[in-house]
Design goal:
Layout (H helix, E strand, L loop, with lengths): L1 H22 L9 E5 L8 H14 L4 E5 L10 E2 L7 H4 L1 H6 L4 E4 L3 H9 L6 E5 L11 E7 L19 H5 L4 E5 L9 H9 L4 E8 L10 E6 L4 H9 L5 E6 L8 H14 L2 E4 L1 H7 L4 H9 E3 L2 E5 L1 H20 L1
Parallel strand pairs: 1-5, 1-6, 2-4, 2-5, 6-7, 7-8, 9-10, 9-11, 11-12
Antiparallel strand pairs: 3-4, 8-13
Amino acid sequence: MAERLLSPISDLYGRVVERRFKAVQPFRCGLPVICVGNFTAGGTGKTPLTRFLVSMLAGDGVTPVCLTRGYGGSLAGPVWVAPERHSAGEVGDEPLLIARTARVMISRDRKAGLAAIAASEGVEIVIMDDGLQNPSLAKDLSIAVVDAGRGFGNGRVIPSGPLRARLDFQLGLVDCIVVMGADPPEGPSPIFEELKKRFPGPVLRGAVAPTGDCGWIAGKSLLAYAGIANPERFFRLLESFGPDRLVRRTFPDHHAFTEGEAAGLIAEAKALGADLVTTEKDLARLAGGSGAPGELASLSRTLPIEVQFDDRDLVRLRSLVDGVLKGAARG
């Protein structure tokens, strides 16, 4: 019933998004731009893929810079993220994570942010975290990330569904799609095959996997907390390493933990005799805090993750990125 009532608003929302692409002349800064976005609202693995691309490019001797809105931060930008000086409350949690391995520019006005990046020295390529539906910037390669388990929900546009615009329209905006994550418990995800039928470009499978030693999880009692868009993915990953007990606590995406919430988590973990564990994004928001949030940060472990591809899909992704770099070299 609610979906039907909201349907006219969804239709209007979708038309507005599409009209913007016809009305705006995209800005091109002279640097190649890769956009990593998604078709839906909510987490799909977009930031891990951005970090993967940063690492891949840096490993090839290419200097990338990331451009992001800095969602959840108070600074409008354009401003370069300084992890030693900025907090998540100022620049957002995702920019702080990415800034561990690459320069990051936050700017709510993406055109102004891209212009500021182009005016700096030593930049060879820009990776834009989100912004697929923003027509103000010209993109040389657009990659959409789709969650294998959640797909497109009910297939409707915001607010009656999760899509940011009609799916057919959005498919026309991208050059590549990455279906991210494990298949849902009920069986193989139908999303991958559906996209291969509807989308003429490459559809790749990516997996989010932990990095480093995870042996500390087995047999332990854990209190896991997460304020991200898809906390169940994090909890399932922890479960796969065989903890003796896993107590889950979820919070809204990009949640700023209060003194009371942080103290409550610490007290609950002590009462349970459990180790505290959280996501890298949550720890980035807590880092540098005082009082109970600062104590919670010091007591919590994280499960660092990275995106992995099979050899065939990695070659296809590299080929797309190399094509962007070669195109830029030709001028």
